Amino acid sequence: MVIFSCAKVPITGRKQFTAVPTSQLISLSKESYQQVIQNNELSDNNVYINTVKNVGTKISGAVEQYMKEQGMEDRLEGYQWEYHVLESDEKNAWCMPGGKIAFYEGIMPICKDDNGVAVVMAHEIAHAVANHGNERMSQQLLVQLGGMALSVALEEQKETTQQLALAAFGLGTSVGVLLPYSRTHEQEADELGLYFMAMAGFDPRGAPEFWARMQQQGGASVPEFLSTHPNPENRIKYLRKVMPKALKFYNK
Question: Residue 90's Cα: distance from chain center in Å?
Fold first, then answer.
């Protein structure tokens, strides 16, 4: 039976309840990440590959340093950062628990430069560091699998559980199960992402511009990356609200 534990999200202080041991979730994400990498063509665009890796290394390093300073390094226990770019026109990116990151080629022109990549990278890393995947996976164990513990679910319903995990990690459409991040999760990732990119030396004032560009890409259809995201005007308004705090990190 699922047993919930309580923790607080870094910086925002929101209380969260999770039912999956972090070590199990990271192990599952490693396995899932390898499957995704093996089942998709990898980009051979060296500019994209190097940009994603360089930006990701700076942001993950800044996050690790901050967590250490705050005595919260246990939240990153078991993290082994990896970065890949997938050969796909999809405008998407994600970060699994444990720091397993993928960008799709389709989102890179919208990012435009390192700062744009940093907006996306920091947002996705924020989802992982804030344990949003664990919250979503815990909820699915209750709703879809009747409160099974993850270890039992993987034994008895492995394929279903793996699909739910991928959906919980943000790869919903890849497995035909769409689990949009809640408004709370998205707003939290926007806020933390702004702080994380600023800590790494990227200008957070570029974030509203990126989201505006992303929205313009939609035309008649909404880009995959935005299909589960909040109203763009609300998002930009919120980013501006928390910008002064982000600029304090940026100007340190």
Answer: 16
Whether 164 contacts 137, CB under 8 Å: yes
Q: How many angstroms separate the CA atoms of 107 and 28, rounded? A: 26
**pTM for the whole thing?**
0.87
Question: How many CB atoms within 10 Å of residue 4?
Answer: 11
Q: Say if CB 3 and CB 152 are below 8 A apart.
A: no
Q: How many domains does the chain have?
A: 1
Give catalytic residue positions: 124
Tell me the C-alpha to C-alpha distance, in Å, between residue 128 and each of 55, 99, 185: 17, 7, 11
Containing structural domain, residue 38: 5-250
For residue 71, how many other CB atoms are within 10 A of its CB? 7
**Which has the closest alpha carbon to 108: 43, 170, 156, 162?**
43
Q: What is the per-residue pLDDT across 42-67, written as a single tens digit (0 to 9) for each?
A: 999 999 999 999 999 999 999 999 99
